[in-house]
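hey so i finaly got around to running the thing on histidine kinase from Arenicella chitinivorans. pasting the sequence first so u can double check i didnt mess up the copy paste, my clipboard has been acting weird all day
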Amino acid sequence: MNQISPFKSSAFRITLVYVVLFGISVSIILGFIYWSTIVYKTQQTDDDINAEILELTEVYEQKGYPGLVILLSERIERLRPGDPTLYLLTDHRYQPLVGNIYPWPKVARDVKEGWLEFRLEDGERQGVDGEFTARAKTFVVENRFNLLVGQGMKDLTTLKALVGRALIWGLILTLALGVIGGFMMRQTLRSRLGAINQTSRKIMQGDLRKRIATRGTGDEFDELANNLNSMLDQIEHGMEGVRRVSDNIAHDLKTPLARLKNRVEELRLRVDPGSEEEAAVDQIIQEADGLLATFNALLRIARIEYSEQRKGFSLVDVNSILSDLQELYEPLIEEKGQSLSVQIGGPMEIYADRDMLFQALANLLDNAIKYTPDRGQVSIRSAKSEGQWLVEIADNGPGIPESEYEKVVQRFYRLDQSRTTPGSGLGLALVFAVLKVHRLELQFADNMPGLKVQIIADPAVVTKPLIHESDGDTQGRAVYLPGTQPA
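ok and heres what it spat out for the 3d tokens, dont ask me to read them lol
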């Protein structure tokens, strides 16, 4: 299975967008909560200060400076420890007259309309230690006195810190939940799309009976799977129709062609030996044999593809087949002056039909000998590598262009340089059908010069038997045991 880069994965991008939008929206909400809380508390403080100033102003207007001093003194005496209220009355030189903070704030910045924000150092407020921020409003009384009324912002500072920490942790928790939710969404997408892709790959490998599983939820993925399954049903129906037409044609023409060949052979007995008529009749018989071989190959491929022969599968020693092939083809190789190299690896037993597998390997070896020039080299090799079994047949003939690898296993497909040689273009199609039934993989490679044909097997798959059962169709289907997968 091909692994897609996370940055190229649509599921990853959707998850990333989801997490970013989720984080932004939550940040906006939490930021608004923080801002509204602090603004509300600050506004409440300002309202309390303005109310104090309004009351002190009324007292000053009614009772003058003495009344103002008396009121400030009384209020300062009534303050409890920890009360945030601040008072300070000074002369025009900012010398303290009455108040609970000393001296007039040295480090201060004007905000607006006489508002100040400053820090109180240790001991600057009567009865209270520690540093904290204060907010106050000042104004001048009769150009002789400066009055400051404010409140300590220690509670507000603490509230800011608490709310800030709560918002930060809330944002972290929200992003974590967003990431988890996004990851779960990505896994769901990957799971559903992965099932579709896995089934699609098996269909592309030629198993048109595969269908995409649905979960019965009625969601968009089920709708997509149903549509794809309907499309596959139509494609399979069309392909089966084409196959059956070609197979029926082959089957229907085989009998009259065989009768025609028999009559031509009877005619041959009546012509004079060595005459031109005999040569013509021999050529007709040869062409008839070629047509019969083509029809037989078509019917053979059809039977293999329809899985009619899976019932006879048993454990077969692949190396023994290779040894038999060596013994069978050595006379032909010697006749052409070619050399044959055989390297047999360790034991290699698979569940197979021995006759079918022998025919497929024989076709590959026959092609290698056929296209290898005189005094050329042909090799057969079996080996175990990286957890896989390999059977390789190689030659140093003209080879096959890489662009043609996928085409040469199609029925009747022949390379341009092969059209002048006898054959129907069904040999590799038959090999491909046999290997597919046996859950084996066919690969081509450049032998520089020549061609390497490799048959690759997964021991975990090919060493387990198939259970064949009817599915109501006349063709039947193959069911794989747990832990196995078709090639």
